[in-house]
Amino acid sequence: xxVKFGIIGGGVMGEALLSRLVSQKIYQPTEIIVGEKSPERRxxxxxxxxxxxxxxxxxxxxxxxxxxxxxxxxxxxxxxxxASVLAKSVPLIISILAGVSLxxxxxxxxxxxVIRAMPNTPATVGAGMTAISLGAQAGDRDxxxxxxxxxxxxxxxxxxxxxMDAVTGLSGSGPAYVALFVEALSDGGVxxxxxxxxxxxxxxxxxxxxxxxxxxxxxxxxxxKDRVTSPGGTTIAGVTELERxxxxxxxxxxxxxASQRSQELGAKE
Length: 269
Ligand SMILES: NC(=O)C1=CN([C@@H]2O[C@H](COP(=O)(O)OP(=O)(O)OC[C@H]3O[C@@H](n4cnc5c(N)ncnc54)[C@H](OP(=O)(O)O)[C@@H]3O)[C@@H](O)[C@H]2O)C=CC1
Ligand SMILES: O=C(O)[C@@H]1CCC=N1
Hints:
Rossmann fold, eight-stranded mixed β-sheet, 2 domains, EC 1.5.1.2, proline biosynthesis, P5CR-like_CS, 13% strand, 12 helices
């Protein structure tokens, strides 16, 4: 069977996408090849998903869709390694690298269709959020391919490339903020006397339920906050402490800092 999907970098995000694409049968394991430097990761991915693995990235270029999932810091070296081989074929190159711009991708792979994408880790369970921006050589078919691929792992939105660093700071990095929030909510429950398992169950379902309520009703978050805060009640006492701790300002600053870091990662390459 021909190799349809190649991944260079079989780390956290490469695996997150791979696992869902295989479980959703978007690609058969035999249609996927992963180029990965770590021998332990190679044997794990081959054993876990039945995909082909190699330490030679040039072998991965036989795929018709090539996903770059290495760290931004090694982009220049990997691009130099691939460039001569890729010049002879015309795969679609999709990069999920934080900060690495379309112009950097197009300079590295002249004349090839490239798409810059920013997925996130909930892709593993089909609840990802991916933003895509198309390079100048990417046509309708390339866009369809990227949309089909990322819609198999969650929602997809197309944005102008100028917004990609902001996307990275919000939805790319966001699962870490939410995980911290859930952990701290559970810690608060434990501090108030709950057993850990119950505290975690309560925290997770409260986050899930609130998100579902906001999505299904399209209610503004401020309105929901108002509905929960009974006059002189418990919630306003909690909200007062969050405001005192700079909770909202902290989150806004976190998204801006991550967005800024995305710009820096691109500038370094
Ligand atoms: N993690 C996330 O939530 C998200 C990450 N991204 C982007 O995805 C990319 C990967 O991130 P992440 O998965 O977290 O990082 P990881 O470090 O987990 O994955 C990168 C993998 O690439 C391997 N690698 C290093 N050099 C090479 C090479 N020359 N050829 C092939 N493989 C190589 C690494 O091996 P080794 O460890 O041995 O160096 C590692 O296994 C980054 O560019 C990041 O910006 C985008 C969205 C979300
Ligand atoms: O932390 C990072 O740099 C990557 C990009 C977005 C999420 N993780």
